[in-house]
Design goal:
rod-shaped; Tetrahydropterin Synthase, Chain A; 11 strands; alpha+beta; 9 helices; three-stranded antiparallel sheet; four-stranded antiparallel sheet
Length: 329
């Protein structure tokens, strides 16, 4: 009898454990739950902890409280300029109403397909009114906000809140990439040509200004040089006039030497010859007076006699020299 009681108690304990395990359940802090009875929702549980349900009759379905990522497939859209663009987008959403979510889509796998089509439809609708330049500029944030609002409005019926929709990557189709790149290269080349043209025009202006300034500087320098040359000529003339007044004979002698030099060295040539007569020539009379020999540092007797008109060399008679000489320059 005692053994039968023990067995009964054991069976009862096992039954209680089974019933308790079926009646008790826990909800994690990152989850929310719906209690179903024969497939119909009976209770929505949002608070974490230990909860009770009718064993063997009711069941529990849990959903995430945290943000859920959605990565729909790449969608090809036509921009405002009728250029195709492959857009890879992603979204983040949260289940705010688990009961409505259960009644519309039941499981997340069903939502992914439907929400992905909504996102791609919104992309086609919004991006169809903008061009690529706007999408790549500072206007992108406003464009994405328009897409998020449109997606969130259509996704409210699923009991979710679409927190954010973003474009991860945009690519041109392969068949239009080369055409777009060629147009971009052409635009950059035109811009570079315009910059070079402006640079060349500026360079010409700088050169013209420099040449004008150089001409002015040269003219001023020429004017100053003429003034200085005139002043120097005036000073020279005054000096020569003063010297002439002090020693007229020396001045005539100096001028005669300059005249001889210019006559002998004509056109800058050092091979000119001049035949002079000794008759009544003041220059050759200086031989006897010693002016030339003293300047040359030689004796009068060391200077050879020049040939006469008949080819004979004349001698010295009575202390006077009748000399015919040929001077070479």
């Amino acid at each position: 009898m005692t053994s039968k009681k023990v067995i009964s108690l054991g069976v009862l304990a096992v039954a209680l454990i089974i019933v308790a395990s079926s009646a008790l359940f826990t909800v994690h802090q990152t989850q929310q739950a719906i209690v179903l009875q024969f497939g119909d929702p009976r209770n929505v549980i949002r608070e974490p902890g230990l909860h009770v349900k009718v064993p063997f009759v009711q069941e529990v379905v849990t959903y995430e409280k945290r943000l859920i990522d959605l990565d729909p497939p790449v969608e090809r859209v036509l921009l405002a300029n009728q250029k195709p663009l492959d857009v890879d987008s992603f979204a983040r959403y949260r289940i705010d109403n688990p009961l409505q979510f259960f009644q519309t889509v039941r499981v997340e796998e069903n939502l992914r397909a439907r929400l992905g089509s909504i996102i791609n439809s919104s992309l086609r609708s919004v991006l169809g009114s903008v061009d690529l330049a706007s999408l790549l500029s500072n206007e992108r944030a406003a464009i994405m906000e328009r897409i998020s609002k449109q997606v969130n409005k259509e996704a409210e019926r699923f009991g979710i809140n679409v927190v954010d929709v973003r474009i991860g990557r945009t690519d041109l189709p392969e068949q239009v990439q080369e055409a777009v790149y060629s147009r971009m290269r052409s635009e950059r080349q035109q811009e570079a040509a315009q910059i070079r043209a402006r640079g060349q025009e500026r360079a010409r202006e700088i050169r013209a200004n420099a040449e004008r300034q150089a001409t002015v500087i040269k003219a001023e320098a020429q004017r100053e040089s003429e003034i200085l040359r005139g002043e120097a000529e005036a000073t020279r003339t005054r000096t020569l006039s003063k010297a002439y007044g002090q020693a007229p004979e020396f001045f005539n002698f100096y001028r005669s030497l300059q005249a001889y030099e210019k006559s002998i060295n004509q056109d800058g040539s050092d091979n000119s010859y001049l035949v002079l007569s000794t008759e009544r020539n003041a220059f050759f009379r200086l031989f006897n007076q010693g002016a030339i020999t003293d300047a040359l540092g030689v004796e009068p007797g060391d200077i050879p006699d020049a040939p006469s008109q008949d080819g004979q060399v004349s001698g010295r008679e009575g202390g006077e020299t009748a000399t015919s000489s040929v001077f070479g320059g």
